[in-house]
Amino acid sequence: MEQSRAETEEAGMSTTSDNRSTITVFERSPDRGRGLARDMRVRWVLEEVGQPYDVQPVSFSQMREPAYRALQPFGQIPTYQDGDLVLFESGAIVLHIAERHVGLLPGDASARSRAIVWMFAALSTVEPPIVDREMIGYFEREEGGNARRIALADDRVRLRLGDLSRRLGDTAWLDGAFSAGDLMMVDVLRRLGGSDLLGEFPNLTAYVARGEARPAFGRAFEAQRALFIAASPGG
Ligand SMILES: N[C@@H](CCC(=O)N[C@@H](CS)C(=O)NCC(=O)O)C(=O)O
């Protein structure tokens, strides 16, 4: 996992950079500062690699404007801007940053690919059923509920968590040292927000707690929370 500074510089990566990137975030996050929006994973990776960044808060109406769509075609947060480079999709942003700094992707090529596999697993296998379940929570519980759909959504999440829990077993991280794959997986699991579902899997609960205990996570969390509080009436 460890790479020397010389190896890093030879590979065109940097340990730090003078460039200060900017990320777009919700002006006032609907999660009320719980750090569940997808800017959190970008803030976290930037904190892990020690890169200072600026935030550009955007409102829902700004996100619909053509100027914002030029940055993010789907009108979502986050985006990442570094000089002339504009990126969207939180997974691509995290990968971009992790690839250019030391510490979140192993130096060994195979181990590096395996860490990237876990990023994709988090985004394309674990996150979708969690988001589907959230959507039912938002829209259907309020309308009197649809107990069967909710139970099915819970089961789809439970299936993924069960498999993940078995793979993690009693290890600290998914494949050796903490990596961008763990960062992404922990961030995705946090969307379950301490629900009973996550609680059914003690090793995953502990895994998320380990991620949240990282100082970089703490700094990222406090930054987004401070923004929410400042944007709130009386904040
Ligand atoms: N796949 C995108 C999803 C981005 C996304 O869904 N962002 C949410 C906030 S977490 C958003 O902007 N929602 C408002 C909307 O979709 O209108 C990514 O990972 O960046």
UniProtKB/TrEMBL annotation:
Q: Which GO terms describe its molecular function?
A: transferase activity
Q: Does the keyword Transcription regulation apply?
A: no
Q: Which CDD domains match?
A: GST_C_8, GST_N_GTT1_like
According to the record, the residues making up region (Disordered) are 1-20
Q: Mind telling me which InterPro entries this protein's record contains?
A: Glutathione-S-Trfase_C-like (IPR010987), Glutathione-S-Trfase_C_sf (IPR036282), Glutathione_S-Trfase (IPR040079), Glutathione_S-Trfase_N (IPR004045), Thioredoxin-like_sf (IPR036249)
Extract the Pfam families matched here. GST_N
Keyword Ribosomal protein set for record: no
Ranges for domain GST C-terminal come to: 108-233
Q: What is this protein called?
A: Glutathione S-transferase
Protein source organism: Tepidamorphus gemmatus
